[in-house]
Design brief:
Length: about 170
């Protein structure tokens, strides 16, 4: 799966309260959550981000509470992938569970600037900065995790596997 879009850059320790503020947790509607994605760090993020864009971040992205609302809001806002130096463990798991691709690549997180055009080959773990003509390498997910992401998350993946057995 190849993804391509503009980079949105965030720093270290971006917690789930910044990704989707707690005041919006009274809904689980992805479209409504998307409207408020990252608004406490960039009030206009949801209006500026375009389908396919990527988030580039520093260390410990998604720290804080374990709410699934955070990766859901990011995915619903149109973000196709997050690349960071590291992720909080529960965010990492929640992102995979909903089919949001994430890659750990400190070099890419350091070198990609906001606004750079980026292309990602998830199967290979290859990250191309088209703006700077640089390539970075992340560890690709094992095939079964790539299948979960391609299916759109864990529940669609399990449903697909059940249908295949029937």
């Amino acid at each position: 799966m190849n993804l391509k879009g503009k980079a949105w850059k965030f720093g270290n320790d971006i917690d789930t309260d910044v990704i989707i503020p707690a005041r919006y947790l009274n809904t689980s509607d992805p479209a409504e959550l998307a409207k408020h994605c990252m608004e406490d760090i960039d009030a206009n993020f949801s209006r500026k981000v375009e389908k396919g864009d990527l988030i580039i971040a520093g260390d410990n992205f998604g720290c804080g509470s374990s709410r699934e609302h955070a990766p859901i809001s990011i995915k619903a806002a149109g973000v196709s992938c997050i690349i960071a130096k590291s992720f909080a463990r529960i965010f990492f798991r929640n992102a995979i569970n909903i089919g949001l691709p994430i890659l750990i690549c400190p070099e890419a997180a350091e070198k990609i600037a906001e606004g750079d055009q980026v292309e990602v080959d998830l199967a290979a773990g290859s990250i191309k900065n088209l703006t700077k003509n640089e390539v970075y390498q992340a560890q690709p997910f094992p095939p079964f995790m790539q299948e979960i992401i391609s299916a759109g998350g864990l529940i669609p993946y399990v449903d697909q596997k059940r249908r295949e057995k029937s």
